[in-house]
Amino acid sequence: MMLVLDTGFRDLSRRSVEEVLDRQMVALIAATEPQPDGSYAPAMSNLDPWLETPRSGVYAQIHAQQHEWRSPSSAGLKIDFGRPLQQGQRNLAYSMVGFDRVAIESRGIQFEGSPENTNVLTFTVAVSLGPFEEQLWRFRQQLVGWFIGLMLALLVTLAALLHWVLAPARRLEREIHAVEEGRSERLGGGFPRELAGVARNLNALLAGERKRVARYRDTLGNLAHSLKTPLAVMRSSVHGAGAETVSVEIDRMSGIIEHQLKRAAASGGALFGQAPVDVAQVAAELRGTLVRVYAAKDLVIELAIAPGTQFIGDRGDLTELVGNLLDNACKWCRSRVRLAASADAGTDPRERLTLTVQDDGPGISAADRPRVLQRGARADEKVPGHGLGLAMVQDTVELYGGRLEIDTSPLGGARISLRLPGR
Amino acid sequence: MRALVVEDEAALRDSLKERLVAAGLTVDVARDGDEGLFAAMEYPLDVAIIDLGLPGLSGLEVIRRLRAARKAYPILILTARDNWQDKVEGLQAGADDYVVKPFQFEELLARLQALLRRAGGWATPELKCGPIVLDTRAQTVAVDGAPVELTTFEYRILEHLMLRAGDVISKAELTERLYDQDFERDSNVIEVMVGRLRRKLDPQDQLHPIETLRGRGYRFALPRDAGS
Fold this sequence. Notes:
The complex is a heterodimer.
Chain A: H1 2-31, E1 32-34, E2 40-42, E3 58-63, E4 68-70, E5 90-97, E6 100-110, E7 120-128, H2 130-181, H3 193-237, H4 243-265, E8 277-278, H5 279-293, E9 300-305, E10 310-311, H6 315-332, E11 336-343, E12 353-359, H7 369-372, H8 386-399, E13 403-408, E14 414-420
Parallel strand pairs in A: 9-11
Antiparallel strand pairs in A: 1-2, 3-4, 3-7, 5-6, 6-7, 8-10, 11-12, 12-14, 13-14
Chain B: E1 2-6, H1 10-22, E2 26-30, H2 33-42, E3 47-51, H3 59-68, E4 75-79, H4 84-93, E5 97-100, H5 105-119, E6 126-129, E7 132-135, E8 140-143, E9 146-148, H6 152-163, E10 168-169, H7 171-178, H8 187-201, E11 210-213, E12 217-220
Helix pairs in contact in B: 2-3, 6-8
């Protein structure tokens, strides 16, 4: 397009150069008269004043057999006006005058009143192309300017258009992100036709997934019930010799069932679109439960939970984690158990929630710490379920990509710290 | 002490009943939620043991309805699902404690006795009133440190009176709580037992641990020791 415009403009300017040449040529021919000495020269008064001004950019020459006339403007310049022409011949050429490009037109003309062939004159006019080239250059500059402007305008329009066209896609992305972070449970409506199907299918997928997990857990619960009730029957009906062995085996089976079912039931955050869980509420419910269960022990469970602290994940998982930790702490403490929770926005999203459970019991010695995290290991066989509970907590924390640490509490006993996804 | 066991698995139900009776309780049983709710509403119970996974009316629902009907005796949950959500729901519905299947019978009994003690306002397994000490775990009684030999039935009457020391307990209530429902009821038996208890606990007739309130019943009159 730019090339077409440029070529067009060049043609136009070439034609106007030719017109100027023609005009000068006609004026030169008209003004030329034979001189008394047999030569030919134009009457200066009828000519373009530029021909008289030295280095004006307009030059002329009249070539006769014996004489040559050159316009005063060409004084001191070395100009190649070309060879003499025959009658009727015409020539157009381009050449250099100094650093100036010029267009040169020559015509061979049989002057009137001179029948002999010898009177053929060659008129030559040269016009500097400087002004035209300057014009062309300016035109090109303008052209480039316009094109850049046009291009920018197009780009801006394109960007705006894309922005507008992709807005629903961005909204979809935002809503998926919200669902992912647990800020929302499903995608909203009002998407354009092209995306409405995607949103609908995603919602169906989310709902289906949630239902599937709920059914899965239900099934696991029923499985636990139908496996463990017979175990309870077996245990309550064995007496006498061998009862101890059977009892130990029943404990083992029961432990395996419990562990595997719990592992299977822990969603580990895979449940997409779960609403965030209010830590304070779960903690208060568990405290209510444990205070009643440990009513004989006269203990105090302190809760220090920053307002609005939320766990991003499954409510059942959080209840298991905190329940196991608090239960252990209640078992081991003398009288005090403390649960603290807070969220730290600055850290890794998977470790924003800090949960700490500590007690004033005997604590877990540094040597025992790796051992209590092994499945089935118990730091103290006198209090059942300690090891299994912590190993379960460890498993679930790992599913969420969090961390578990054991150290010593300022209260004197064990302090278990969990880092989990939250806010 | 009269207990109700609501459990759908027949073998477990029967064995629980057998061992609870052996431990000195009077036991009623029910096979499902509806039967359990009926029994729990109608019988004069001291404690109920309810399985959560019942056919028909769920265990949770039975507990909710009992509490809504202002039945205040302690309830122990049996659950196969060892997860905290279920325990929290059970206790929120109004249960007092839970035991996870498969349980050791001794653990269940210990928890049951703890619930009964707590319901009577006792914090420790030893009930102390002046010189008389009743150990609910060992089921022994001592006066001034000297053990007192009691028959099972005498022990059960004394335990019932001491758990609710200070309260007046009618003969009818004692009969109901200590006999099976189809047992021949004869209040004279209770009078005879209380008379024997008084002689065994207080041979010099100085302590007067059990008062008779004419037409109203009996009361364990010695004050509970502070801190127990």
